[in-house]
Amino acid sequence: MDDSQPDSQTPASDPSSWVDGHGDALFRYALLRVRSTELAEELVQEALVAALAARHQFEGRSSERTWLVGILRNKIVDHVRRTAREQPADQDGATESAVADFFDKTGHWKSRPTKWPGDPSRVAEDQDFWRVFDECMGKLPGTLAHAFTLRELEELATERICQVLSITPSNLWARLHRARMLLRRCLELNWFAPET
Length: 196
Prior knowledge:
CATH class of the largest domain: Mainly Alpha
Number of domains: 2
Largest sheet: none
CATH topology of the largest domain: Arc Repressor Mutant, subunit A
Shape: globular
Distance between the termini: 73 Å
């Protein structure tokens, strides 16, 4: 047999090496999306078990880590789908008044958003910024956090997000608008606020 010929199917590495080789990256990926250490650990475990069961399907068209992240991503979307069904129906209404605080009766800003100082690429590299961002994400109601996570972090298409959350496109856009407004306000107060 000629070993120089590429295999038509590249097997996944030994599953016993997955935790050491990819565990930290998978955990960080999950934690950024679900904001709970315990839940992130649980989802990573579910993804690794699913990968173990499907390891014979790994075709080597991507890196092993990319394949594992893809499985984890599906587990996260499944989690969001489950929890979205369990959310109280009136939870979006609770954020309506919080967002309304930004505007007057005519729909104009009560107080314009502040211009964020600094270079955005430098802010994006700052670990303290991401800690504050994570805290702000944690303050969002679940319905808004799910929509924002699926759109901005998972980069799912509108149709797929609506399918996962069982909502209409207009409801999705309203949720995204509210999430962005609340995140902006939280970041203005906790990150970009001038020091006194």
